[in-house]
Structure formats: structure tokens, C-alpha cells
Amino acid sequence: MKVSRLLQHYPNVRVDCDSRERGLPVTSSATGSAVTMHIGELAEKTGLSLRTIRHYDEVGLLKASARTEGGFRLYTQEDHSRLMVIRRMKPLGFSLDEMMALLKVIDTMQGGVAGSNNTSVRAELDAFVAEAVERRQKLQDQLAMADEFLELLRMQ
């Protein structure tokens, strides 16, 4: 659907100038409106490669919110925020399955999904927090060893 037709049906949708000029569709979600961006812009904003983002789409970790008539992936600000959570999990060594599980917990907690007040969901989130703290400590210990090693080299 063309931007002009979308704007007729969804008058509260915001469109940035670049999207309007390129004729990109704009999506409207239940929570309001969203300006979309192509995968290249998302990659630039997150520092992740196009290949990585496509892989996340293929495995279901981060699906594109929409596609252009030509089939190009379009992402929203919500998608960007979700991808930043994923990006922050990478250095801690979380697997794709662990990332999917945590995103499911986050979606449940934030979205008011049935069961979001469930103590088991809260316990899952607490377990992820504890795991992240433990993994962060391991990284910090490795960094301390690297600093010691550099100091030894400098003393030579």
C-alpha cells in the first residue's frame, strides 16, 4: 500500500521525510504508529552486520515488522530496541535459544500477556539476571588477567 493511502487510513501515523520520499510503507501497530527503516539503517544504528540481522530473522529471533512491495525487510523502533537487547547479550555468550527464551520472558513481562504476573515468569527473569551477573563476572576476571599480562609485557 502506498504511503498516501496508508495516511488516509491511519491519519495518526508519523512518516519521516526520507521514508515518504522513497515511497516506503509505514506500519501501524496496536500501540500506535511506527516509522520503518530498511535493514541497512538498522545495521548502521546497531553496529551489527546485515548478515547477522538476516540470520536473526531466519531463526525467528527478530522478525521484520513489515516488507516493502519489493520484499525488502522493514523494521520499527521497537525492532531496534529488541535488537539492542540481543546485541547486549552476545558478549555474555548467550546462545540463540537462550536469547529467544529471555525475549519471550521480556515480552510476557512488558506486554501484559496472560501470566505476566505469574511468579514462574518472574523467576525465569531472575534466573536470567543471575546468569548475566555470573557471565559478566567471568568477563571481568578475564579482563583483569589481560591487564596483568599487559603489565608483565610492559615490564620486560
Automatic annotation (TrEMBL):
Domain HTH merR-type: 36-105
Pfam family, one: MerR_1
Record organism: Cryobacterium gelidum
UniProt name for this protein: MerR family transcriptional regulator
PANTHER family: HTH MERR-TYPE DOMAIN-CONTAINING PROTEIN, REDOX-CYCLING DRUG-SENSING TRANSCRIPTIONAL ACTIVATOR SOXR
SMART domains named in the record: HTH_MERR (SM00422)
UniProt KW DNA-binding keyword: yes
Keywords of the record: DNA-binding
InterPro entries: DNA-bd_dom_put_sf, MerR-type_HTH_dom, MerR_fam
Gene Ontology terms, MF aspect: DNA binding; DNA-binding transcription factor activity
Gene3D superfamilies: 1.10.1660.10
Lineage of origin: Bacteria, Bacillati, Actinomycetota, Actinomycetes, Micrococcales
Domain of life: Bacteria
